[in-house]
């Protein structure tokens, strides 16, 4: 039989572990940073809510388009999007970590995907002129950027008139960005909410530059 003293000791240890976990999560959320390359295997795990097919349905990539992916990591979505815009379309995949860029370049070459351009760059200062892309997307990335407002400004800048922006978010990501706040911030930049799919804990949201609100919102 376990003594009360032992039970109290176990409870105290569990309490300390919980506090340490909460402190770590708070520090991680308060100091946004991209997933380290050493943990790259975690970002290739299946994503039940923010799936590749859902991204394709919301992004609506068309053959011949020029698309921007911010924070592709190891390329979980990149190949699928690139194949959808063949033969003359191009995906420019910008990641702040050089290791991720090289990993993605190798992966695309091994898969035989030739229309992806992996580039090392910062979302807060994208290396492209204004009105460059037909569409841009970032998934589980916005909350990792130290200056989200500047990154949103940059995304608006590089999109063409009538360009599309898709943002994907999902819990339990500690950098999760809620939809309502995201919509307000993006609409302040002149983009119009167009569609959202997924659940309240995980979603893809699409916005357009200077278009009418279609208000498609099939959230579970």
UniProtKB/TrEMBL annotation:
UniProt-listed Pfam families: Methyltransf_11
Recorded hits in InterPro entries, A to Z, give: Methyltransf_11, SAM-dependent_MTases_sf
Q: Which controlled-vocabulary keywords does the entry list?
A: Methyltransferase, Plasmid, Transferase
**CDD domains listed in its UniProt record:** AdoMet_MTases
Q: Which SUPFAM superfamilies match?
A: S-adenosyl-L-methionine-dependent methyltransferases
According to the UniProt entry, the coiled-coil residues are: none
- UniProt domain Methyltransferase type: residue ranges: 68-167
One GO term under biological process is: methylation
Instruction: Give the molecular function GO annotations.
Output: S-adenosylmethionine-dependent methyltransferase activity
The name this protein carries in UniProt is Methyltransferase type 11
């Amino acid at each position: 039989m376990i003594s009360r003293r032992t039970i109290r000791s176990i409870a105290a240890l569990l309490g300390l572990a919980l506090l340490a976990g909460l402190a770590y999560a708070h520090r991680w959320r308060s100091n946004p940073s991209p997933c380290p390359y050493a943990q790259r295997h975690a970002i290739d795990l299946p994503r039940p809510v923010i799936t590749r097919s859902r991204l394709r349905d919301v992004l609506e990539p068309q053959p011949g388009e020029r698309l921007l992916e911010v924070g592709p990591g190891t390329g979980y979505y990149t190949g699928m999007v690139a194949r959808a815009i063949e033969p003359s379309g191009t995906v420019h995949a910008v990641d702040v970590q050089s290791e991720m860029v090289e990993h993605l370049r190798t992966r695309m070459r091994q898969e035989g995907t030739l229309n992806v351009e992996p580039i090392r760059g910062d979302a807060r200062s994208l290396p492209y002129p204004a009105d460059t892309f037909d569409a841009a997307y970032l998934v589980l990335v916005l909350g990792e950027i130290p200056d989200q407002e500047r990154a949103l400004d940059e995304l608006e800048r590089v999109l063409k008139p009538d360009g599309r922006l898709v943002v994907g978010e999902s819990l339990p990501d500690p950098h999760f960005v809620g939809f309502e706040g995201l919509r307000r911030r993006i609409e302040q930049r002149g983009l119009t909410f167009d569609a959202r799919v997924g659940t309240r804990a995980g979603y893809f949201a699409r916005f357009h530059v200077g278009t009418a609100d279609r208000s498609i919102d099939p959230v579970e």
